[in-house]
Amino acid sequence: MPSSIAPTGPDAPQALPLVIVGAGLAAWTVARELRKLDTQRSIVMLSGDSADFYAKPTLSNALAQKRSAAQLVTTPAAKMAETLQVQLLPHTLVRSLDTGARTLSYEDAAGQSHSLHYGDLVLATGADPIRLPMAGSAAAQVQSINHLQDLARFHEALGVAPKTVLVIGAGLIGCEFANDLLIGGYAVHVVDPSPRPLALLLPAGAGEQLQDALQAQGVVWHLGTTVQSLDADASSGRLQATLANGTSVQVDAVLSAVGLRANTALAGAAGIACERGVVVDAHVQTSAPHVYALGDCAQYASAGARVLPYVMPIMNAAKALAATLAGQPTELVFPLMPVAVKTPALPIVVAAPHPAQSGQWSQDEGLEAGAGGVWRFIDGAGQQRGFVLTGKQTARRMELAKTTLL
User: Fold this and answer.
1) Strand pairing category for 278-280 and 260-262
2) How confident is the model at residue 247 (pLDDT cuts 50, 70, 90)?
3) What's the rounded mean pLDDT across residues 355-366?
4) Which are the contacts of 234, defined by CB distance < 8 A and separation ≥ 6?
5) What is the pLDDT of residue 406?
6) Residue 78: partners with Cβ closer than 8 Å, 6 or more residues away
7) How far is CA 47 from CA 19, 82, 325, in A?
8) 75 backbone φψ class: left, alpha, beta (φ>0; ψ -120 to 50)
9) What is the pLDDT of residue 14?
10) Structure confidence at residue 9 as a pLDDT band (50, 70, 90)
11) Please, what is the average pLDDT of the chain?
12) What value does the mean pLDDT take over residues 61-89?
């Protein structure tokens, strides 16, 4: 028989728990921020994994830090739950939501079904790696890294260096993993249909600097093409990737890093408005009363209907949401949030303009050779709306931030 944690009805929200679905940075930060304002509200957190706390950005530089997946955990889940007075339900699968009755159904680690009433619900369901279709007998061996368990499996399958890794995707995550693998002693090939790395994020000159810097460290670029098939090579025991341009590359492992897609399945099935992510308003509320969303799964009205899969947006959204949940309705206002790209071969800081912002990139002249570069995004009125700093110029992050309009 299904059980229910909270037998009371949904007419008194404060008598019912705040329920958080997810246990990543977004989920734990909401709990932490709420506890600063309200020490009494009951909080229940449901997680599909162990819910241990770690910094997700460290997944892409674990080799450089000489840390295993287990060593990336900064606080065990039990300690987080105890400190923040959270009832944690790990290894739990949320099956469905009924936003009218304010209930959710879930399956626990033993496979038993339960229902749970909530006063308010926070969806922090994150995002899933995009997997591109691929032909070949070894296509199923392509791996993605989005959680600690993924990293542990990848490192175990890869084994010790020297080995050769093919990275699919030359975006932010792909370049970070490529640089990390180089530092770990692996040979790295990177495939991407774009003409240069980070083509959607950086002006051409900055992308070319990164391409040259990683190539100097050992990356072999295959730009302007894609992987058509991946097959096992019986004679060598390795994998053979065939590219659309006719090139064949023998490797020991393939890592897909072509981007993330917001996990909207649970919200969408409940009738909550979803587009590129779960649509939330300026108070981080979804289209359903008493249901909120933040983190990689959310599409923020406060960011011009963008999905922002970065740490700083999560921290800002969690703080505003906690105030709202504590009875102090607070609109989310994002500040300028520059992103540091973790590529030691060429450090980069990006404050990207809004995708709908008209204007063009302009590069500062007169910098010494090897000193890095400065690019400013200038709108039609001559106002700076974004910037990119590379190399030594990343030290000017605060200076450029002060002169950039949102």
Assistant:
1) unpaired
2) very high
3) 94
4) none
5) 84
6) 88
7) 11, 16, 21
8) beta
9) 54
10) very low
11) 94
12) 96
Token pair in block for residue 159: 């084994």
256-297 confidence digits (pLDDT tens): 999 999 999 999 999 999 999 999 999 999 999 999 999 999
Residues of the chain with CATH 3.30.390.120: 347-402
Could you say which architecture CATH assigns to the domain 347-402?
2-Layer Sandwich (3.30)
Pairing of strands 93-98, 103-107: antiparallel
- CATH, range 3-127+260-325: 3.50.50.60
Mean pLDDT within 160-168: 95
Which residues of the chain form CATH 3.50.50.60?
3-127+260-325, 131-256
Strands 298-300 and 291-293: unpaired
List residues bridging with 378 in a β-sheet: 360, 384
pLDDT at 234: 87
pLDDT at 126 over 50: yes
Q: What is the 3-state secondary structure (H, E, C) of the chain?
A: CCEECCCCCCCCHHHCCEEEECCCHHHHHHHHHHHHHCCCCCEEEECCCCCCEECHHHHHHCCCCCCCCHHHEEECHHHHHHHHCEEEECCCEEEEEECCCCEEEEECCCCCEEEEECCEEEECCCEEECCCCCECCCHHHCECCCCHHHHHHHHHHHCCCCCEEEEECCCHHHHHHHHHHHHCCCEEEEEECCCCCCCCCCCHHHHHHHHHHHHHHCCEEEECCCEEEEEEECCCCEEEEEECCCCEEEECEEEECCCEEECCHHHHHCCCCECCCEEECCCCECCCCCEEECHHHEEEHHHCCEECCCHHHHHHHHHHHHHHHCCCCCCCCCCCCCEEECCCCCCEEEECCCCCCCCEEEECCCCCCCCCCEEEEECCCCCEEEEEEEHHHHHHHHHHHHCCCC
Q: What is the mean pLDDT of residues 372-383?
A: 96
Residue 11: is its pLDDT beyond 60?
A: no
CATH number of 131-256: 3.50.50.60
Is pLDDT at 6 greater than 80 in this prediction? Answer: no
| Radius of gyration, CA atoms only, the chain | 23
CA distances from 64 to 67, 168, 339 (A): 8, 20, 19
Region 54-59: what's the mean pLDDT?
Answer: 94
At 301, the amino acid letter reads A
